[in-house]
Each structure stands twice: as structure tokens, then as C-alpha cells.
Amino acid sequence: MISQELLDILCCPESKANLVLNDNFLISTDKETRRKYRIDNDIPVMLIDDSEQLDLETWQEIMKKHGKEI
Questions:
Q1: Distance between CA atoms of 54 and 60, rounded to whole angstroms?
Q2: How confident is the model at residue 46, as a pLDDT?
Q3: Which domain holds residue 8?
Q4: Are the CB atoms for 28 and 38 separated by under 8 Å?
Q5: Is residue 14 within 8 Å of 28, Cβ to Cβ?
Q6: Which of 37, 39, 49, 68 could be bridged to 26 by S-S, CB 3.0 to 4.6 A?
């Protein structure tokens, strides 16, 4: 599990936006990039080439779930 302390210092490598922890993924709060980064064995894989871009609807649902303005 990712600690809050680590989550507070990590950011999206593409947009530099904050991230939210959603299940076993870190999701960028940037509406334009909507990047989803996996976590392997409690280690975030923060490589843009290994990330996934979420569709807008899925990204919006995750942001609402975490109380982020969209």
C-alpha cells in the first residue's frame, strides 16, 4: 500500500499534476492527460510509456469518487 506521505510527493511525470490512489493504481488529476499508473509490489510504475490513458467518463467517475473537482 502506498503511504500518504509518498502520495503527497509523487506527481504525474507527464503533466506534473497531483495523483489519487484508486485501487492499485495512481490516477493523474489532469483532465487533459488522464494517466493511470499501475503499482507493482507496492512500487509505483511512473513511466509514461507504461501508463494508460483513461477515457474521459472513467476519469470523471474516479475524480468524483475522490472528491476532486472536474
A1: 9
A2: 97
A3: 4-65
A4: no
A5: yes
A6: 37
Q: What is the pLDDT of residues 28-67, one digit of tens each?
A: 999 999 999 999 999 999 999 999 999 999 999 999 999 9
How many angstroms separate the CA atoms of 26 and 49, rounded?
Answer: 15
Quickly state the pLDDT bin for 21 (edges 50, 70, 90).
very high
Q: What's 55's domain CATH number?
A: 2.20.25.10
4 HSE (CA, 13 A, CB side): 0
Supply the pTM of this predicted model. 0.93
**Domain count of the chain?**
1
Residue 70 placed within a domain: no
Does residue 1 register a pLDDT over 90?
Answer: no
